[in-house]
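Bench notes, afternoon.
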Amino acid sequence: MEHVIGVLVGLGLSAACGFRIFVPLLVISIAARTGHLVLAFQFEWMGATPALIAFALATLLEVAAYYVPWLDNLLDTMATPAAVIAGIVVSASVIVDLDPFFKWTLSVIAGGGIAGGLQLLTTGTRHLSTITTAGAANPVVSTVELGSSIFLSALSLFAPLLVLFAVVTFVLFALNRLWKGRAPA
């Protein structure tokens, strides 16, 4: 059962990377430093003070940048490959005591895949917002993304069994919204 919990925590944190890349990394660092999360071998550095400071600074910069009207769309372009990499790293960092082949296969396919998929959905949502509201609603989109990243990160640590439900619900909601936005009137 511990393996399943570790995988769910990793996938939840990977999903959170699809909304904001550095929020889950900061959460991992804080949780590791406070003893609420055990990091996998060779990922202990994520709980060190320099990593905590770096993740905190990167989180602040990322959050602030998404509220700059032209910069938010530019960041979305660069964020997709970064979200995939972050999803892989966060998955691998919290999946402990699992065969390395299975751990890395799961981290790359599921962790990177869910992070990249959600990032693409949020990118589509922001572009739709930019087109339909001339960017006026983009701060709302940014706030929802930030809240989703924080929520999924916390849910991953405190109620990992609910992560799957939360992620599936969001994906269905986002796909529904995108579908309605593209449907001819």
